[in-house]
């Protein structure tokens, strides 16, 4: 673009030149955008849209409307008292008969079972009892009630009515241990069924605990590395970077081997006479903490190190020379200068720990599984995609909010500098 | 931070306690990596010390052509380089574009390009699982390569972006004014200067793909089973010295990566030093 500007004759009025400059600038911007566009487009298609449509499943309620469109429409008109009218009943019977094709019956059966576990069986029984397609029935209300008395109850139809609108908040509510009562008011689920509160609490406790331990271990280490002569510190840095570059699975396997009942940790403790019989150190919370702290510690040490490397030792020396106790000088003069590194490392480690799945799955017990595990479980094992998406969106929102804070605090480059 | 000669006994005590503590932390970091290596040479079938004898039988088991390990390694060696290459090309172009000019929404755009690094893996995995099922890329090499490109690309964007911070774009203008085509300017002027960033971003992307389990577990069938999946199921079902042998090979690989990164860092620091 510069070439075209250079080749134009110089004797042009100034206004024209300004227009040309503007055009050249615009070209430059367009070119810059064109360079970013392939990746941005690629990410939107393969990353943003898939995740967006996955999250949509947390409010998606289209099962009934797609398999039984007329029934869904009719039930949304119904006022919820007595029984739905004859037309709705007839539409329901006809669409139930058709739902056998293409797996529709399975979809609505699964969806209705979230409302009440009896629906799938009821639908199957009713389908078997339906008269042949050609037969004309005058009174569907009686016909259905004869097949199963449940069709004569308002509650049965109310349950189906709840699945008729295109969206639902039941999964989001359920992932917060809430539900809608019979009157539509939001209420907490029975104490015995409160599952996810414990899961989120556990996720926070593990991620928070791992972050604090990483800070406690990483701060002194980063301080040592930043204050040692370059030659020694580079050598010691290898001990931080080698685990950092080593496969997560290798490190997880190593911790299982180290901590198993006849592993090196138990053998050493017994040889030292500290314990009589082997301790259970793995497949429980202890194992999760060991492995996760080990995997995430470098992510704490590296940002701390890069901040501490830039802190001049003179301030601390000045404080000591003015009579401050060395500890006071460290705490009041040095530590405040490391705050940005501490914040960066802490948030980074916490964000990464929140989403952990593989390590707790391998070294933890059933009571140590975090939110990610349940997202995977609902997707793969029970096909309850609404729940998977609802739990996933909460995890994602928390993570993105924390990332926003992190982003405010540090330049992105610091993530993997060094 | 050497101990001054006039240090009091308390200071002396603290100094050495502090060093001891740091030593223990370093020991904690390196022990797991080192402990697993000798176990891979065990002649027994248990992962415990002391070793009953020394043998290479577990390496033989890994490199058995009919076994699962070699097939998994092959799959990873297909997927990781392709994903890395794609990430390097897309990431480098984007980083150059981001530094070439200011345009509205640049901050948002950068946030988008970095986001695969932040979003929890299981969410990426479930999202791609549904998406690939719809477009017929589930259980395919193409799907796996695309997924791993997404996960690796932020590293390339970040590292190339960082090397471009010190890059003077007047060089591009000079090249263009001397009549070089934009492509020629890129390959002869820009690329040689940002190559350390491109390569180190590529190494990060490669390491990511070579160690990625969660997404692969969701979108790959047994045919595309990658090395990390094989490791994962091996650890879960029956942790044998074969895992230790594979781990040793992977540790060797990570050492290689570490050394390469260190050399790149030194090179770029030398370059920076010579300019200033």
CATH class annotation of the largest domain in chain A: Mainly Alpha
Q: Helical residue percent of chain B?
A: over 70%
| Total discrete domains of chain A | 3
Radius of gyration of chain A from CA coordinates: 32 Å
- CA-based shape of chain A: extended
Strand content of chain A: under 5%
- By CATH, the architecture of the largest domain in chain A is named Orthogonal Bundle
Low-confidence stretches of chain A: 1-6, 412-418
The figure for the number of domains of chain B is 1
Largest interface: A-B, 96 and 97 residues
Distance between the termini of chain A: 36 Å
Strand arrangement across the biggest beta sheet of chain A: 1-2
Count every beta strand of chain B, where a strand is a DSSP E run of 2 or more residues. Answer: 0
What separation lies between the terminal Cα atoms of chain B? 28 Å
Order of helices and strands of chain A: HHHHHHHHHHEEHHHHHHHHHHH
Radius of gyration of chain B: 24 Å
Question: Could you give a short description of this structure?
Answer:
A two-stranded antiparallel ribbon of chain A has the order 1-2. Chain A has helices at residues 2-7, 14-56, 63-67, 69-77, 86-98, 104-115, 119-129, 140-147, 154-162, 170-175, 196-227, 230-245, 248-259, 264-271, 285-309, 314-321, 326-334, 339-354, 358-363, 371-380, 385-409; strands spanning 178-180, 186-188. Chain A contains 21 helices and 2 strands.
């Amino acid at each position: 673009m510069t070439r075209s500007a250079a080749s134009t004759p110089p004797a042009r009025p100034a206004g024209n030149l300004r227009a040309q400059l503007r055009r050249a600038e615009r070209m430059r911007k367009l070119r810059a955008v064109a360079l970013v566009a392939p990746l941005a487009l690629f990410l939107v298609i393969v990353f943003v849209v898939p995740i967006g449509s996955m999250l949509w499943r947390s409010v998606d309620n289209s099962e009934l409307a797609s398999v039984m469109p007329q029934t869904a429409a009719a039930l949304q008109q119904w006022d919820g008292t007595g029984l739905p009218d004859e037309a709705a009943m007839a539409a329901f019977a006809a669409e139930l008969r058709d739902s056998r094709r293409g797996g529709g019956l399975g979809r609505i059966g699964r969806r209705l079972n979230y409302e009440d576990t009896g629906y799938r069986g009821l639908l199957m029984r009713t389908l078997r009892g339906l008269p042949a397609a050609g037969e004309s029935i005058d009174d569907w209300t009686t016909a259905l009630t004869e097949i199963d008395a449940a069709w004569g109850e308002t509650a049965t139809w109310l349950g189906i009515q709840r699945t008729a609108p295109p969206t639902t908040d039941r999964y989001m509510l359920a992932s917060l241990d809430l539900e809608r009562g019979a009157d539509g008011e939001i209420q907490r689920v029975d104490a015995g069924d409160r599952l996810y509160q414990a899961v989120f609490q556990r996720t926070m406790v593990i991620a928070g605990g791992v972050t604090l331990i990483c800070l406690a271990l990483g701060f002194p280490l980063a301080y040592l590395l930043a204050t040692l002569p370059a030659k020694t510190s580079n050598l010691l840095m290898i001990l931080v970077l080698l685990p950092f570059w080593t496969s997560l699975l290798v490190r997880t396997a190593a911790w299982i081997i180290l901590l198993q009942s006849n592993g090196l940790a138990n053998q050493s403790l017994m040889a030292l006479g500290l314990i009589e019989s082997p301790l259970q150190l793995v497949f429980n919370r202890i194992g999760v903490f060991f492995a996760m702290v080990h995997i995430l510690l470098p992510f704490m040490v590296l940002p701390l190190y890069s901040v501490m490397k830039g802190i001049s030792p003179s301030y601390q020396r000045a404080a000591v020379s003015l009579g401050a106790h060395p500890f006071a000088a460290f705490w009041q003069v040095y530590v405040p200068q490391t705050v940005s590194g501490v914040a960066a490392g802490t948030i980074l480690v916490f964000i990464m720990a929140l989403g952990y799945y593989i390590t707790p799955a391998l070294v933890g017990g059933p009571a140590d599984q975090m939110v990610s595990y349940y997202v995977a479980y609902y997707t793969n094992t029970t096909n309850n995609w609404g729940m998977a998406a609802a739990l996933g969106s909460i995890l994602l929102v928390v993570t993105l909010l924390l990332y926003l804070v992190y982003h405010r605090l540090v330049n992105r480059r610091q993530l993997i500098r060094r | 931070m050497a101990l001054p000669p006039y240090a009091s006994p308390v200071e002396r005590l603290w100094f050495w306690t502090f060093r001891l503590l740091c030593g223990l932390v370093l020991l904690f970091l390196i022990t797991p990596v080192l402990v697993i290596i000798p176990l891979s040479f065990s002649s027994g079938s248990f992962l415990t010390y002391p070793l009953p004898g020394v043998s290479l039988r577990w390496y033989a088991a890994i490199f058995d052509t009919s076994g699962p390990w070699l097939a998994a390694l092959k799959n990873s060696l297909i997927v990781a380089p392709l994903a890395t290459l794609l990430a390097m090309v897309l990431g480098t172009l984007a980083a150059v574009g981001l530094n070439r000019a200011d345009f509205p929404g640049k901050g948002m755009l950068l946030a988008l390009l970095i986001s695969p690094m932040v979003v929890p893996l299981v969410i990426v995995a479930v999202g791609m699982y549904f998406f690939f099922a719809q477009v017929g890329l589930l259980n395919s090499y193409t799907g796996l390569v695309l997924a791993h490109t997404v996960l690796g690309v932020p590293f390339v964007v970040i590292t190339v972006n960082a090397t471009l911070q010190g890059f003077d774009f007047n060089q591009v203008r000079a090249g263009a004014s001397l009549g070089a085509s934009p492509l020629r300017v890129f390959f002869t002027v820009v690329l040689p200067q940002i190559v350390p960033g491109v390569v180190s971003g590529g190494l990060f992307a490669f390491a990511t793909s070579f160690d990625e389990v969660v997404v692969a577990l969701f979108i790959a069938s047994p045919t595309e089973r990658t090395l990390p999946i094989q490791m994962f199921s091996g650890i879960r079902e029956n942790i044998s010295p074969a895992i230790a042998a594979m781990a040793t090979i992977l540790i060797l690989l990570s050492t290689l990566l570490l050394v390469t990164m260190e050399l790149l860092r030194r090179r770029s620091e030398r370059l920076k030093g010579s300019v200033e």
